[in-house]
Amino acid sequence: MEAAPINTAEILIMEGKCASKPPLPARLGIEGVGTITSVGDDVRGFAAGDRVMSMED
After folding, report:
1. What beta strand segments (E) does 8-57 contain?
2. Can you state the percent helix, strand and coil of the chain, rounding each to 5?
3. Among the four residues 13, 15, 48, 54, which has the most C-beta atoms within 10 Å?
4. Residue 43 lies inside a defined structural domain of this protein
5. Nearest-5° angle of CA 32, CA 53, CA 40?
6. How far is residue 44's CA from residue 19's CA, in Å, rounded to a whole number?
């Protein structure tokens, strides 16, 4: 992972300014970006060097 951004909603939650408050313990920072360094033999659709992002549900 090369970066883990924090979005505006997460900042508002941390500052206690968000209308909806997540139950504690809250988990923030669900996005990530990076570059694939290698893939297995059965991987299709991705290759080393591809820039990717992830987002947890």
Report:
1. 31-35, 51-55
2. 10, 20, 70
3. 13
4. yes
5. 110
6. 42
Q: Is residue 2 part of a domain?
A: no
For residues 37 and 23, the answer to whether their CB atoms sit within 8 Å is no
Print the domain residue range for 43: 8-55
pLDDT tens digits, one per residue of 7-56? 888 898 889 898 888 888 878 888 899 999 999 999 999 999 999 999 87
Cα gap 31→21, rounded to integer Å:
19
Structure token pair of residue 7: 């979005």
Q: How many domains does the chain have?
A: 1
